[in-house]
From TrEMBL:
It holds the Pfam family Abhydro_lipase. One of its GO terms (biological process) is lipid catabolic process. Transmembrane segments: none annotated. This is Lipase 1. Residues 1-28 form the signal peptide. Keywords: Glycoprotein, Hydrolase, Lipid degradation, Lipid metabolism, Signal. SUPFAM superfamilies: alpha/beta-Hydrolases (SSF53474). It comes from Ceratitis capitata. Residues 67-119 form the Partial AB-hydrolase lipase domain. Residues 35-49 have a biased composition (Acidic residues).
Length: 443
């Protein structure tokens, strides 16, 4: 099984690189001066002792596991293991603050708990919440590098990988939430999620509504839930074509680190890799800290099941937020209907605050607004006041604290709100949403 999986992952990589080269070529023709740092010759011999120390520290960060990384920056780190009803053994990371309100953070697709810490104590959300006196718990979904274990199944076998974000919502989140409540003695957690961390949360609350009572508030960043507007995304087409091909249909595990060495080879391949990431999530050089790219590469991608990706593609293609669809007969056997019944978002009664952005290629503002209307208890939405803000900027942007987390702290009542509760730059944003709509229509 393994050689075939690796080989097909390799083919996918080649496939993606070809597309990137095309996109890169197009960009290069139109705007050559995109990156102001490009001209700087950073030869290693000229570096000062401080620069050398910084470079070493970055190398170290790219190599450390999440608990070691947290400890390196002087926060109390803990590792916990949680077993789900269906036998998956998950790892949780914790920045301990004994007796404080637990705050649960759940990562997105191909990510891990690292997403909330890799940018360091001056940027990343986990540290900020710890500084604001929360007991921070970081989840890891089944199948990523920290949760590749099971009481019975072999992670190198096919059966282990038969899951999507439906199971993450049905089993992983409930198991981890119960574990946190039991360990801390609290009755409720605070929750924030990014992308799939929201998707799985809404699955949980709609299918196991008793969990609504265990959450004080949900803060949803870039919630990938409705996705009718994502269909035009070039990569989505490529990936769905790939899955329809013979190789694609046999893949079980994906994105477990194949990219790393390629991206690290030269300045030029690094740049290509960043463009490839931008091609997926949206382009925003201004907020991207290129110095930190080695750290990002050290922690991404953290591994997913192919079925997770296929399930997202179904949501995009079918325009329905529903469980995984099999053949018509199998659907009938499992769901008693020919197509799986939708998740009912009105059953999500946790107060939910939503953060989204215009340049998020995976999570279009129109889709987020449609989802917002269907939620059982929406309490506010915030369009990030920067038109270029992309899907990963919610974790990686240099100014993410100012642009996103400050609002989060206000919603939590940790810092005082200004008189104007609504987004001051909303007029600008509405304009750019309209422009992007027009551009799409013209295409
Ligand atoms: C990263 O870790 C590996 C194995 O743990 C080690 O061989 C390598 O030297 C480390 N690299 C850096 C830059 O620390
Ligand atoms: C965080 O910012 C402070 C002050 O700006 C600086 O002294 C410190 O070195 C920074 N820490 C890290 C890990 O970058
Ligand atoms: C998987 O979990 C078992 C406990 O059931 C443990 O003994 C084993 O060390 C774990 N494997 C890894 C790779 O963490
Ligand atoms: C969703 O749940 C609400 C509240 O229980 C119910 O009124 C509504 O009929 C449900 N919708 C569907 C499509 O099942």
């Amino acid at each position: 099984m393994r050689p075939l999986q690796n080989f097909s992952s390799f083919l996918l990589l080649i496939f993606i690189i070809i597309i990137c080269l095309k996109i890169y070529h197009i960009h290069a023709q139109f705007d050559i001066e995109t990156d102001p740092d490009d001209e700087e010759d950073e030869s290693v011999e000229d570096e000062t002792p401080e620069e050398k120390a910084a470079r070493k520290s970055i190398q170290e960060d790219s190599n450390l596991t999440v608990d070691k990384l947290i400890a390196k920056y002087g926060y109390p780190a803990e590792v916990h293991h949680v077993t789900t009803e269906d036998g998956y053994i998950l790892t949780m990371h914790r920045i301990r603050r004994q007796g404080a309100q637990p705050f649960f953070l759940q990562h997105g697709l191909v990510d891990s708990s690292a997403g909330y810490v890799i940018m360091g104590p001056n940027i990343s959300l986990a540290y900020l919440l710890s500084d604001y006196k929360y007991d921070v718990w970081l989840g890891n979904a089944r199948g990523n590098r920290y949760s590749r274990n099971h009481t019975k199944l072999d992670p190198d076998g096919k059966k282990f990988w038969d899951f999507s974000w439906h199971e993450i919502g049905m089993y992983d989140l409930p198991a981890m939430i119960d574990y946190v409540l039991k360990t801390t003695g609290f009755k409720k957690i605070q929750y924030a999620g990014h992308s799939q961390g929201c998707t799985a949360f809404f699955v949980m609350c709609s299918r196991r509504p008793e969990y609504n009572k265990k959450v004080i508030m949900m803060q949803a960043m870039a919630p990938a839930v409705y996705a009718t507007e994502t269909e035009e995304h070039p990569y989505i087409r490529a990936i769905s074509l790939y899955f329809r091909s013979l190789v694609g249909s046999s893949v079980t595990e994906m994105f477990n680190g194949e990219f790393r060495f390629l991206c690290r080879m030269t300045e030029e391949t690094e740049r290509l890799c960043i463009e490839a990431v931008f091609g997926i999530v949206g382009r925003n050089w201004d907020e991207f800290n290129r110095k930190m790219f080695p750290v990002i590469l050290g922690h991404y991608p953290a591994g997913v099941a192919a079925k997770q990706v296929k399930h997202f593609i179904q949501v995009i293609k079918n325009g329905r937020f529903a469980p995984y669809s099999y053949s018509s007969n199998k659907n009938l056997a499992i769901y008693k209907e020919h197509i799986p019944p939708r998740y009912n978002l009105s059953l999500v009664t946790v107060p939910t605050y939503v953060y989204y952005s215009t340049n998020d290629l995976l999570c279009h503002p129109e889709d987020v607004e449609a989802m917002y209307k269907d939620l059982g208890n929406p309490i506010g939405k915030y369009l990030i006041p920067m038109p270029e803000f992309n899907h990963m900027d919610f974790l990686w942007a240099m100014n993410v604290r100012k642009l996103v987390y400050a609002r989060m702290l206000r919603v939590l009542g940790k810092i005082k709100d200004h008189k104007k509760a609504n987004n001051p730059a909303s007029a600008v944003i509405v304009n750019s949403v309209q422009q992007s709509r027009e551009r799409r229509r013209r295409r």
